[in-house]
Amino acid sequence: MSIPVLPGITAKTITTERITTRVLFFGSEDGNPVLFLHGNLAAATWWEEVLLTLPAGFRGIAPDQRGFGLSDPHKKIDATRGLRDWADDAVALLDYLNLEKAHIVGSSAGGSAVWQMMLDYPERFLSATVVDPGSPYGFGGTRDTAGTPCYDDFAGSGGGLVNPQFVQQMCDGVRTLDNPFSPRTVMRTLLFKFPFIPEREEALLTAMLSIHLGQQDYPGDSESSPNWPYVAPGKWGLVNALSPKFAPDVAALYALQPKIDLLWIHGSDDILVSNHAAPDPATVGQAGLLPNWPGAEIYPPQPMIDQTRAVLENYAAAGGRYHEVVIQDTGHMPHIEKPSQFNAVFHQHIESVMERAIL
């Protein structure tokens, strides 16, 4: 599959110690590096406009991550490692490029990878930016701001919850709006706030359809559970890697050294990552669309935003620095929906970090 790129973007195939993949570049090789990590149902393509608008003196780098785009299809995500495969891949790319440090930016599941990288490789950061990231406690099946699981087996998270009709539409490469589960329909209704339609929708859709499909890729495998909604996470693929079962030790963030300046940007109307997320089984159960929901006493919606804010408040109390920006009237991809507003806060963040480093 060929994925088009905008003029000014350079696409290269790079083989690191861990993976061969397509990497997009913009800017001078001696610029301050900014590494962009895309999320689920995406590829490096989804960062292109942000790369092109980087301030002078910065170099944008955006890989197709393991399991997506033009990355090696034989390289799988071992979900039992959480997001460590993505974190290790990112650092291997920095090593290949002889970059000691970078500003590291993650959107959605890419933001979840940033949490992992902060724990495993804090010394590689100039700064961190997370854009509508998954909760540091993972996605699905936790009940409170401490990330307490609803069940011991983490039922209600992982690949078994992905709608099979959507997977079939992805497998068939459907590009129409004829089906509520078509990739284009999902993009317009879940990733962006309706009625926004991105100017480069066709390129984004092509990148979306480049996802690697299968029981070791997307949606991944699953296990049956006696607990509602009767599925627990498997061992392969990104969706399972995002399960709280495999989430990192969040408390370790507070002891992190060196502390990393972090910017948290999220859309006010994001329905994928919220306190009542559309894909959350509890949200679906409350609406009567998933039978036998046991009620909020046993399985409440995961308070994803509140969890992230609580973690970052604890991080700040331990000596870290973070800044939260909510972009109004915006969904899950504010860097595409509201690029001017996104760039204003993002550019200020990375430029101010460099200014402080000089001083």
What topology emerges from the helices and strands here?
Blueprint: E1 10-15, E2 20-26, E3 32-37, H1 48-52, E4 58-63, H2 84-96, E5 102-107, H3 109-120, E6 125-131, H4 164-171, H5 183-191, H6 201-208, E7 213-214, E8 218-219, E9 222-224, E10 231-233, H7 238-241, E11 261-267, H8 281-286, H9 304-317, E12 321-327, H10 334-337, H11 339-358
Parallel strand pairs: 3-4, 3-5, 5-6, 6-11, 7-8, 11-12
Antiparallel strand pairs: 1-2, 2-4, 9-10
Helix pairs in contact: 2-3
Number of individual domains: 1
Anisotropy-based shape: globular
Let me know the number of strands: 12
Give the spatial strand order of the biggest sheet.
Answer: 1-2-4-3-5-6-11-12
The CATH architecture can be named as: 3-Layer(aba) Sandwich
Cα-based radius of gyration, to the nearest Å: 19 Å
Question: Which series of helices and strands comes N to C?
Answer: EEEHEHEHEHHHEEEEHEHHEHH
How helix-rich are the residues, as a percent range? 25-40%
The first-level CATH class is given as Alpha Beta
Largest sheet: 8 strands, mixed
Kindly report the name of the CATH homologous superfamily. Answer: Alpha/Beta hydrolase fold, catalytic domain
Determine the N-to-C terminus distance: 47 Å
Q: Give average pLDDT, whole number.
A: 97
Strand-residue proportion: 15-25%
Low-confidence stretches at least 5 residues in length (pLDDT < 50)?
A: none
At the fold tier of CATH, the topology name is Rossmann fold
The number of helical segments is 11
Quaternary structure: single chain
Which structural class fits the helix and strand makeup? alpha/beta
